[in-house]
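Run log, item B.
One chain of 172 residues. Sequence copied directly from the ordering sheet:
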Amino acid sequence: MSDTAPNDPIPYVTRSRAYYLTQGYDNPYRWAQFEDVPFTPLGKPLASSRVALVTTAAEFQPELGDQGPRAPYNAAAKFATVYSRSIDTTPDLRISHIGYDRQHTVAEDINAYFPLERMKEAVAAGRIGELTPRFYAAPTTRSQRATLETDAPEILRQLREDGAEAAVLVPV
């Protein structure tokens, strides 16, 4: 039985804390908190900037079971290391590996969680200067330590390598 009505917001924080306890951890999940956020305002207009797309979507792997738009949660489809791919073609990315509101999310539309085509349209319209040659993907391992010490520095390294001046983060 659900603890929410069909259109009520999902109590994500409460559910995440409870889930963490069911996994054998000694205490509820603690959300990352930062007193000083490492934010830097753009030094020039977005229309003159090189912008990157960062996602948590996983590449489709047919051998790992159902990963379609309405697939049930599929932990087997998770990925554990940062990856990046060319933006020259639209990749086959999926989100079955993530716990999300399957009733209210438009998972059939890749642009809902991977807006590469919309960003290309923004470049063509002059709203974004250009895109980096690759997009980047961050794993969703639920480990703050891995994210802070391994994944984030690797994505930052690749962003700098590709000359990114801004990034659009699309976590699912």
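Observations after the first pass:
- The beta strands are 50-55, 58-59, 83-86, 93-94, 130-131, 134-137, 166-170.
- Residues 144-161 form the longest helix (18 residues).
Flagged for discussion on Thursday.
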